[in-house]
Amino acid sequence: MLIREKLEQRGLVIPPAQVVPEGMTFSYRRAVRHGNLVYIAGHGPSEGAGWGAPFGKVGVDLTVQEAYAAAELTALNVLGTLEREITGLDDVACWLKMTGWVNSGPEFTEHAQVINGATDLIRDLYGEDKVAARAAVGAPALPFDMPVEVDAVLALQ
Amino acid sequence: MLIREKLEQRGLVIPPAQVVPEGMTFSYRRAVRHGNLVYIAGHGPSEGAGWGAPFGKVGVDLTVQEAYAAAELTALNVLGTLEREITGLDDVACWLKMTGWVNSGPEFTEHAQVINGATDLIRDLYGEDKVAARAAVGAPALPFDMPVEVDAVLALQ
Amino acid sequence: MLIREKLEQRGLVIPPAQVVPEGMTFSYRRAVRHGNLVYIAGHGPSEGAGWGAPFGKVGVDLTVQEAYAAAELTALNVLGTLEREITGLDDVACWLKMTGWVNSGPEFTEHAQVINGATDLIRDLYGEDKVAARAAVGAPALPFDMPVEVDAVLALQ
User: Fold this and answer.
1) What does the alpha-carbon distance between residue C7 and residue B143 come to, in Å, rounded to a whole number?
2) Containing domain of residue B142, as a range?
3) Which residues of chain A have a CB within 8 Å of the CB of B104?
């Protein structure tokens, strides 16, 4: 089954690219290909012109469940970037590494449970033998007060 | 001398793999090989069924010396994962990158001294010409309240 | 135009390598080459024997503008390491990934604006089609109380 079909089956939609404020320019790329390696920039739970998750600190402004959903949406954005900027979703040979940052305070310890929202989706779509090595860590704050940020390295077929 | 012999000479033991609570599944791999590149997930100072280091924040719950030992144990776990999941310890051509996160508060500045616990071990085992580029940074908290987390990228021969 | 000429045109100078206190040894390398991949260690705004930026937390001890300048200086140090330890600045085929940590408190959200100081320089020197994927995140503290830390992966021609 194609990845797009699996997404549809789960009722999941890849959001459109994050809308960029007029006049804003970027000095980085959302994805860079080198040979069959692809580096994906840090993404968050954006949804086109808005945000698909509450802002703020997990454990304070969001529950772990809400943050799990934000991490899943973040992974959908990673997939959207891959598809729009590099190649089709079915061209992935293997996910190599994902790093997930959780916007959280000094008492928080459930980083893994939050970032599972991103990596569970990748597992469900690509299978256990293609999932990435992962690091899940805390950050005292993130750009735009996003609750999570996830980047990735993957190999194409 | 084999890496295993160097470990023995130093009285160091690679702990068994971290025991996974029954029913728990993972959506990431501890190590992923692509060609001769290996990506190792974020590891901590676990020891089989338990933890080989005090929990908590370095500078508050642990001294820098205790955290150095925790980082060394973390590097032993990185080696254990490499050996159990990918290939023998002597097949490493070069360590490419290690990132070390230190669970610490806003006043802490000795991240390098802590993460040295991991990279000093790699240097002692593999030699100065094979050590990784490194980033050592703070995190306000880490999964399970681990004092340190370290991931790695390496090249096989 | 050569990268060195572009730097000169902008009045920018790559600082000398950070002076290492006598007797201090390192268990990591500032840059590691594997094939045509280069991994650059986490760098900060050092300037030879001193520091070219105020210490401390962005938003408290430094303004965003000062931190932008610190990130630019950090990128100059990344270039200096590349040139001293691996190869000439004009041998870069493509910047693949940069991660930027901003030393900042829980209320800070302008991480992107700070790390732009590093990636804007890379864009100005190498062009938009060679810039890296990027992650910009917060850290509660950084080694030596540096305001920013940046690491990089790049491909050589």
Assistant:
1) 43
2) 37-156
3) none
